[in-house]
């Protein structure tokens, strides 16, 4: 793993959670006993990242450490180990482009060229602060490759043209529709299913229990 350092200059001198995040913090902390509060470090770092415009500043990590009564270095260790935590500023819309084998085989390299052309180099933030991108490992949507994650949403079955249109809409403040960008529902076959089309396979009728076995007075099971 490459060495990961956080951006000290961009983080400023302070951080505070948003008031509406406090209930979420309480929810995660309540999952652990009083003497095991450090176990909540990953969800609290995730919440801090969301409240800090998509990245973790050093003051944000210190706030998590103070909340959980942890040494700062222990929180830094977690944040620098997991690549889900970003350690430098990102755009309002941060693109995570999957570069693992299934997406590579289906055209991720061409999507990377779109990112470089429309946004810039990895982790570069556009002048209007709207866009940034990075290449990541598998995001678990291999059947819909190639795909990207933008903030919390997946955009799948992309082509360079469809991806460029999404980037263009984000640049101009227009809405975008996540999910597959072709004629399919979720991970179903393109154009609809052509097998296992009998509705009775899915309405539960084939698994209906007519009678409970082995009740008193029930007919004994016949040997084959």
What does the model show?
- Among the domains are: 19-81, Arc Repressor Mutant, subunit A (Orthogonal Bundle); 93-180, Glutaredoxin (3-Layer(aba) Sandwich), CATH 3.40.30.10.
- Helices cover 30% and strands 9% of the residues.
- The protein has helices at 22-29, 41-51, 58-68, 72-81, 101-105, 108-118, 160-171, and strands at 93-98, 131-136, 148-150, 153-156, 179-180.
- Strands 2-1-3-4-5 form a 5-stranded mixed sheet, covered by helices on one side.
- The radius of gyration is 24 Å and the shape is flat.
- The mean pLDDT is 90.
Strand content: 5-15%
Distance between the termini: 60 Å
Radius of gyration over alpha carbons? Answer: 24 Å
Order of helices and strands: HHHHEHHEEEHE
How large is the count of helical segments? Answer: 7
What is the CATH level 1 assignment of the domain at 93-180? Alpha Beta
The major pleated sheet works out as: 5 strands, mixed
Structural class: alpha/beta
CATH topology of the domain at 93-180: Glutaredoxin
CATH architecture of the domain at 93-180: 3-Layer(aba) Sandwich
Give a count of the beta strands, DSSP E runs of length 2 or more.
5
Provide the low-confidence segments as ranges.
none
The averaged pLDDT comes out at 90
Strand order of the largest sheet: 2-1-3-4-5
- CATH H-level superfamily of the domain at 93-180: Glutaredoxin
Overall shape: it is flat
Percent in helix: 25-40%
């Amino acid at each position: 793993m490459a060495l990961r350092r956080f951006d000290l200059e961009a983080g400023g001198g302070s951080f505070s959670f948003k008031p509406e995040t406090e209930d979420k913090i309480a929810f995660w902390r309540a999952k652990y006993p009083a003497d095991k509060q450090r176990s909540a470090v990953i969800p609290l770092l995730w919440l801090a990242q969301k409240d800090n415009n998509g990245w973790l500043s050093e003051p944000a990590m210190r706030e998590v450490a103070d909340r959980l009564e942890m040494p700062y270095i222990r929180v830094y260790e977690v944040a620098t180990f997991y690549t889900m935590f970003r350690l430098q500023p990102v755009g309002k819309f941060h693109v995570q482009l999957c570069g693992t084998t299934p997406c590579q085989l289906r055209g991720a390299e061409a999507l990377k060229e779109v990112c470089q052309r429309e946004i810039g180099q990895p982790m570069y933030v556009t002048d209007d602060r709207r866009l940034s991108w990075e290449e990541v490992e598998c995001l678990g949507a291999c059947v819909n490759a190639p795909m990207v994650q933008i903030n919390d949403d997946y955009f799948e079955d992309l082509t360079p043209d469809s991806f460029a249109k999404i980037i263009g809409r984000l640049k101009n403040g227009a809405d975008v529709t996540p999910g597959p960008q072709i004629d399919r529902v979720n991970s179903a076959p393109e154009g609809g299913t052509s097998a296992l089309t009998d509705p009775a396979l899915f309405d539960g009728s084939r698994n209906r229990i007519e009678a409970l076995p082995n009740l008193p007075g029930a007919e004994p099971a016949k040997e084959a």
